[in-house]
Amino acid sequence: MAAEFDLVVRGGTVIDGTGAEPREADVALKDGKVAAIGRVSGSGQEEIDAKGLAVTPGFVDIHTHYDGQATWDERFVPSSGHGVTTVLMGNCGVGFAPCRPEDRDTLLRVMEGVEDIPEIVMREGVPWNWESFPEYLDALAQRRCDIDFAAQVPHAPLRVYVMGRRGVDREPATTADMAAMATLVEEGLQAGALGFSTSRSLFHRASDGSLTPTITAAEEELGAIARGMRRAGKGVFQLLDDFQDTTPEGSTEFAMLRRLVELSGRPLSFTLLDISLYPGRWRTLLREVEKANRDGLRIRGQVAARPVAVLYGLDLSFHPFSTCPGYREIEALPLEQKLARLRDPAMKARLLGEQPSYRNPNMLAFMRNTDNMFVLGDPPNYTPPASERLDAQAVALGISSLELAYDLLVSGDGRTILFHPGANYADCSDAAMAGMMRHPDTVIALGDGGAHYGLICDASYTTHALTYWTRDRPGERWPLAWTVQQLTNVPAQAVGLGDRGRLAPGYKADLNVIDLDRLRVAAPHPVRNLPGGGRRLEQKAEGYRATVVNGQVTYRDGNFTGALPGRLVRGAR
To answer: Looking at the whole model, is its pTM more than 0.85?
Structure first.
């Protein structure tokens, strides 16, 4: 007798993404959709015994930067190894389309500086078989990958495409420029983009140190684009902003966001973090978000599920001495030779006494803040106690935290990774992060997969959310059903992907089978498997028994099956 279903997952504990209590049930999949949930009598061409295991919808990460990787790689690593089955890229206003041939170098410099993607990787990997944004989507539509992926129209390439050098130099847009940008955003949305994104952060700089093209764009320019989104009647607005003008009373920059939502009629989300440089700012912004939603304006904060882990090491992109003149003399040496030089007492004394310099002063301040660093360890601990911070350890040793950082970096085989909580861990407390995550007007995101190849590896946040917040956290822990909902249905709905994020008949056949007791994140480690021999951080997980995309098993016990059912997602669902 022929099998009734393509795949049946039997006897698992189904956590369906709605927030409902877990229940034991079978899940049957057919033709890329969920066909039945409950007691399924029909057989499947393939069956998975999920007794004692959790069965969840596939996770949805709405903040990634796979814009380049999607053009050269079949696998969205590391996200796809952590239960993610759909990603949204083109965030923070950076990307590769639209783009004229003469502007490619400009976009490469922006992506290298903002997202820590080596230029050689992009030169070797990006095929540039497009010019317009619809053509970029057409090129992506030919790709066959391990998960689904969607894109947004990014502001930086749009501005350069319309304004040329004037856009790069951040000159004010003319009326004609603004009209052209609005038309191109409309065109991108009609072709299948899920939204438009921009950045107004001083942290974002090109590889030559210049500010990115969008940072000083006037409200009038953003307003013209917002009106284009209203005409299209679709899409979300994503934004990164420092909100430098924020006071306890409010933010004039946030007031602009309100006006943009009023003009566009579309939802808006922005990165919301507890950054130590701006203590308390997140509380003010969250109050503004609450007020906006009470007033009928759909604004959400995108929040992280763990401290933003800025990672430093001799085999990574940066460390506290990487911008010192003495280190630059040896940085190109193989690691063993580099270590031999660094272990010379004279070199140590020189680097400890040198003044570093770097094109991005904000990044330089982060790199030199050794007081607030930890050794990451394996397994990694992203919420370590204050006693493990370098400043506390250095006091006990009678040396400076800078010297301790040096000693740790050159110890052993030179592969020690220092972890700097760039956000969400002020005073070694997760309380602010918990407050943001539990708020009804936020959405968990910010995996940043496809970017920061040698600096950040936060795409594993989905696994961390399930382990830390529901199982391992000291004190209060969160309901598993709630946490799964925040990783699935909530982000899917936030960007208009209403066909996924739940396990229910008719929904997309994306799911995970998870051994929650064995679930863990391994330490990140550098590998060189990018185009041109480029390096990236890889981080694996244990406990994912199976990941299913469009009804096909893509990963089994953490191993890639070779199935490539992932496709470009065009437009809201």
So the answer is: yes
